[in-house]
Design goal:
Distance between the termini: 16 Å
Radius of gyration: 23 Å
Strand content: 15-25%
Bound molecules: adenosine-5'-diphosphate, magnesium ion
Number of strands: 17
Length: 388
């Protein structure tokens, strides 16, 4: 962006791929975080006199125009955040979009309709990519959340626009996550969440890279089952038990300490008000819903010893208050640590805000999947396309 602005964008049509994939509830924006995050790049471009056209996806309309996935409600919210009018265009390509973008004056901004109303977007269709490129003298990618997808608006479009640049949000994300790839040690990785299968490749990549790998959430039970421990009715993925063993072996041979819960909060049912107990061994008929207090303390102490922390996935069913203690304790532990800390993942960020420690975390990543892929060491197609 610095380089781009230094060479001037006044009067230029700048197509910005943002991540405005916000949750909607009854047709209104339910959470502004992604809108807020995309504002700095847009503001700089507006102030530099660019004619800004913003594109994004929202939800999964699967290539069809579905009104419930319209970006229209985002336009007034974006306008509030920017402090300037944002016009909305119900097409993101074609004559109407061209006309709307052509009408922009220097420093004005328009939001175009959901990219995924067109099947060509996720297929990285060359014709759709060219149609997007027709709107732009300059292309800026600022959508970290979709940088791991080779779509028309993240990859294809870059082949047809002469000037391309990396937005400030995307750059900041990459810089912070690079710290996890190339960490000050010890590096502590805390992984939780629902499923081992969701995060198997990151477990495999980080087991030999981290100094300490602490596992919580439901994925811990597959590891416990792999060791032959009783797991009761906890969420286990039987066909991932061999994979879990492989992760344990990889950690061992690399000298990484792999920590599993030593105690558990178990409940008779995964619902508020169900009877609960704290146990070392999960009894038959009970279900693990959170790491126990001893485990939470141990993970939190690891956070004090670490110089770099990467955390993804809550430690328990934190949406239910009685099962949120483990996530809370570990979250506070990360916040108290002087280590550089990076937390990513949709539910993880919700948990951080719930615990109220957001301002004590070095970096909150806006893109769960993209952050995991980057930390694994993979090249993000959307980023590689900018380096071309
Ligand atoms: P993120 O969105 O941060 O990447 P995930 O989507 O992987 O995290 O996992 C979050 C989900 O995992 C939450 O809905 C939470 O309730 C669930 N979860 C965590 N621990 C357990 C558990 N012990 N049993 C069942 N679900 C769990
Ligand atoms: Mg999630």
């Amino acid at each position: 962006m610095d380089e781009l602005l230094a060479t001037g964008v006044r009067g230029q049509r700048v197509l910005v791929r943002s991540d405005l994939n916000v949750p909607l509830a009854r047709g209104a924006v339910a959470d502004d975080a992604r809108i807020e995050a995309s504002v700095p790049t847009l503001r700089r471009l507006i102030e530099a006199g660019a004619r800004v056209a913003v594109v994004s996806h929202l939800g999964r309309p699967k290539g069809e125009r579905k009104p419930e996935f319209s970006l229209r409600p985002v336009a007034p919210r974006l306008a509030e955040w920017l402090g300037t009018g944002v016009s909305f265009c119900e097409e993101c390509v074609g004559p109407r979009a061209l006309e709307r973008v052509g009408e922009l004056e220097d420093g004005q901004i328009a939001l175009l309709e959901n990219l995924r109303f067109h099947a060509g977007e996720t297929k990285n269709d060359p014709d759709f990519a060219r149609a997007l490129a027709a709107l732009a003298d300059v292309y800026v990618n600022d959508a970290f959340g979709t940088a791991h997808r080779a779509h028309a608006s993240t990859v294809g479009v870059t082949e047809h626009v002469a000037r391309v640049a990396c937005g400030d949000l995307l750059r900041t994300e990459l810089e912070h996550l690079q710290v996890v790839r190339d960490p000050e040690r010890p590096l502590l990785v805390i992984l939780g969440g629902a499923k081992v299968s969701d995060k198997l490749s990151v477990l495999e990549a980080l087991a030999p890279h981290a100094n300490v790998l602490a596992v919580g959430g439901a994925m811990a039970y597959t590891f416990l089952a792999a060791r032959g421990d009783a797991v009761g009715n906890s969420l286990v993925e039987p066909d991932r038990i061999d994979d879990a063993r492989r992760v344990v072996d990889a950690a061992k041979s690399a000298g990484c300490a792999l920590l599993l819960p030593t105690d558990h909060v178990v409940a008779e049912r995964v619902e508020s008000g169900a009877p609960t107990r704290v146990v070392r061994e999960i009894p038959d008929g009970w279900c693990g819903v959170d790491i126990g207090p001893e485990t939470a303390r141990a993970y939190s102490e690891e956070a004090q010893a670490a110089r770099t922390i990467f955390c993804n996935g809550p430690m328990g069913v934190f949406e239910i208050d009685e099962f949120a203690r483990g996530t809370e304790t570990v979250g506070k532990g990360i916040a108290m640590s002087s280590a550089t800390s990076v937390i990513g993942g949709g539910d993880s960020l919700a948990a951080v805000h719930r615990v109220g420690v957001a301002d004590r975390i070095t970096h909150l990543s806006t893109g769960g999947g993209a952050a995991l892929e980057f930390v694994e060491g993979r090249t993000l197609p959307g980023v590689a396309a900018l380096d071309r």
